[in-house]
Structure prediction request, 195 residues.
Amino acid sequence: MVRIELAAALVSAWAVWLTTRRRPWCWPVGLVSVLVYAWVFVHAKLYSDALLQLAFALLIGYGWWRWLQHMGGDGRVEVAALPRRQAVAHLAIGGLGALALGAFMHYRTDAALPWLDAALTAFSLVAQWWQAKRHVASWWLWIAVDVIYVGEYVYKHLLITSVLYAGFVLLAVLGLRAWRRVARAPAPHPLGASH
Prediction:
């Protein structure tokens, strides 16, 4: 089990690193990691996390397609703004999803930490959606979620995964800085345009 968890952690870290670099290969690498992690989480009775991995698998397909539609000339995805109204709506949907999934996991399963796991699952889906849509704000949400995940995984004795998520926090900070820098950069002028 530890070897499988370690392999999943390494592939996941690679996928997030590719994401910080805005490289579209982050999506297929991420697909491998979420499928392995789904099995790890079922074994740990973190059912919301297991479901999250399957939802990630679907979002990965969408994200990969979406990014390929918005590639810059440098081979990296272009960053897009997130309107405040959409951000609030998505966070509200995440909150409702957390309550609904938490109630189901609490009353219908033997899930460990059903409410916390459900909340982290719901807001991870929001962050993943924002990532697919190329929003810098996804990194802020990933930082918040990943910090809490570290504690959850320590509590569940998934030490390799807790170290991975601590690394994810650092990678998310790097991703935030890199994506913000790109978002703030002036748009290139078309060839032949006057200044």
Remarks:
- Helices lie at 2-20, 26-43, 47-68, 84-108, 114-132, 137-155, 159-184.
- The longest helix spans residues 159-184.
- The chain is about 75% helix and 0% strand.
